[in-house]
Amino acid sequence: MTSVETPPTTALPTPQTGLSLQRLSELAWERNGAENRLIFEGTTWTGLQLAERARRLSGGLRRAGLQPGQRVVVCMSNCPEVGIAYQAIWRAGAVATPVIFLLREDELAHVLVDSGATFVITTPEFLPKVAAASAGTTELRGIIVVGDSPAAAAAVPVLPYADLEDGEEGSLVEADSTEMAALMYTGGTTGRSKGVILSHDALSASAWAATASAYDPELAVSLLPLPLSHVYGLMLNVTGLHAPRPGTQVLLRWFDVTSWLRLAAEHRVQTSAVVPSMIQLLLAQPLEDYDLSALRRVGSGGAPLLKEVADAFRARLPHVEVTEGYGCTETAAIIATTPLGRGRQGSVGKPAPSVRVRIELPDGSEAPQGADGEICVAGPTLMTGYWHAPEETAIAMRDGWLHTGDIGHFDADGYLYVVDRIKDLIIRGGFNVYPRDVEDVMLAHPDVVACAVVGRPDTTYGEEVVAFVQLRPGATATVEELVAHAREHLSATKYPREVRILDAVPLTSVGKTDRKAVRRTLLDG
Question: Which CATH number fits domain 427-524: 3.30.300.30, 1.10.10.10, 3.40.50.720, 3.30.530.20?
Fold first, then answer.
């Protein structure tokens, strides 16, 4: 069984294995802590200052009752306390469970119950939703709030974050590097999100691979608009574990195009990781009005980058290299990266260092060069498995290879091209949208008898969610009413902006929704 593997392109030392993320963090703080900088909303912290806060918070979590191996949900928009929380959780020997703050109450409730979380760390604006979602949980011991917490009825005590951080440092609880460090929830085709178990080794290997494939000591100032609660943002947050030289990271609370441009100019930003929809939004701005002369590299991931969008960005900023990467939650965010200065149009790059990729045909054999097949991945970045889902784990991971469900091929030089998806996953603005999740909500409308959801190409978000519905006889629901219904019951990343009413949703000969026929309808207009 052959596969493609890429050696590191930098002179980074061989990554240290067998060490927990917190032990690696301690080494990184000793190496660069005084020089590393985090800039957030006008305030600058050194790595050592953040480390001190993480050590104190870890002690506070232990005093509040957190035990090694327990899960702590982190539900916040980007801020220094997100990274501090991760470090504190790992220092206590526990497991970080990041969630996007855009989750609806019932989605968050599922994560709390399914993970068996002991604590939630959040901010005041999300406290009411977190408090409501905590109803019915049996293992949750407290909600920890960063900042002034408003009054909120909760099934468990609400604890001030400041009180936990204002105490003695907690000692480091040693964790085996093969143990779970993060439990990341991703969408499920059955309509319920499932937890992906990522070990300390997997996250460390992913961070090392990202650094080894694209590290440039001259690009020391980065701008991070990606949510730290997404696996892409989480991986970038731990890349400092292996960076040989200090750097400065400018953190955005969330992506705002004007703020991105202002901060990029103000801090002479040299590199930034984005998703394609962010590039499209930047193109709609007067880029020439901002001093972006220091910017050298923009890395795009999370969704396909359309050729016309990449070309337009390069034309506006010809001194900036635009590259693509590819990964998924099950690989700790990394599969392929673009080597420095060697991008190839339409390709997501080459397999990241230490990652092996093969293209598999339906019969299980390896596809010849240039032929399409399922993208399969092996290496140290792989998940341990799905949380409490051995059958799904066995389907996804076979003979040491993760079967991604994506279709792609290699060219003669080992560059990977992702051309389609076996699964019906829609990626809108870098966020996964599973059709079944949307269909279940649409079918809950009293006028809807059948529904099929597909994605259509979109220059701003990569893909847009489109729902095709069949109404009950005599029903009078309008498109506007159906969109409003979806918006009420789905998060902002999922609800369809476009609904089309059909006389009948097409079915296959065995009675299943015929998505190919639905897509043809979409193409026919």
Answer: 3.30.300.30
